């Protein structure tokens, strides 16, 4: 989800907010720590070490929980509530896609093939090594628009995954706004 954090930082900078103060918050380092673990897993997957896939779901839950520090510190309850609704809706979309496709999540890689990050053989090997529920999509895939088709070149997301990331966007952007508001009040602006 590092690209999500980077996009929030870029958007915040575009909106003329200072982003450096967010990095003075210890809560941000918990988030970045999990991001580093994700990067490590992505590197392992690129090197065809698929045994880490089985921890991805747990890591996603831990990652989303690391945002609780920012939520409580800056009282971002509205953002958290809306974001939690998006997480619920995103999870529901993913569950529907998995249910209608026989307990598997079809993936439609395009850019990941071009970048060399994945291959059809890699999907089969990952399924065998990590008992992964992702499969290559086909003509028989049902509700393709709910499956993993948004290809980032190193990860393929579903609409549900994007909705889950909205939580990160809302909370992180809200924290940056609150920090900037506090700085403005301290300066008497």
From TrEMBL:
Segments passing through the bilayer: 28-46, 52-72, 152-176
> Keywords of this protein's UniProt record, alphabetized?
Membrane, Transmembrane, Transmembrane helix
Question: Which InterPro entries does this entry report, sorted A to Z?
Answer: DUF5317 (IPR035168)
Name-wise, this protein is: DUF5317 domain-containing protein
């Amino acid at each position: 989800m590092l690209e999500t954090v980077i996009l929030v930082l870029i958007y915040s900078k575009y909106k003329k907010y200072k982003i450096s103060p967010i990095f003075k918050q210890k809560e941000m380092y918990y988030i970045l720590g999990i991001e580093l673990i994700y990067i490590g897993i992505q590197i392992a997957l690129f090197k065809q070490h698929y045994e880490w896939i089985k921890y991805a779901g747990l890591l996603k839950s831990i990652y989303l929980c690391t945002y609780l520090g920012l939520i409580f510190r800056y009282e971002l309850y509205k953002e958290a509530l809306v974001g939690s609704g998006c997480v619920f809706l995103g999870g529901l979309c993913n569950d529907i896609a998995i249910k209608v496709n026989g307990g598997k999540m079809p993936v439609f890689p395009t850019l990941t093939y071009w970048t060399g990050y994945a291959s059809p053989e890699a999907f089969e090997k990952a399924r065998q090594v990590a008992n992964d529920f992702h499969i290559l999509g086909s003509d028989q895939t049902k509700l393709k628009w709910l499956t993993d088709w948004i290809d980032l070149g190193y990860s393929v997301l579903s609409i549900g995954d994007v909705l889950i990331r909205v939580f990160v966007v809302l909370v992180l952007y809200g924290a940056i706004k609150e920090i900037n508001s506090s700085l403005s009040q301290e300066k008497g602006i």
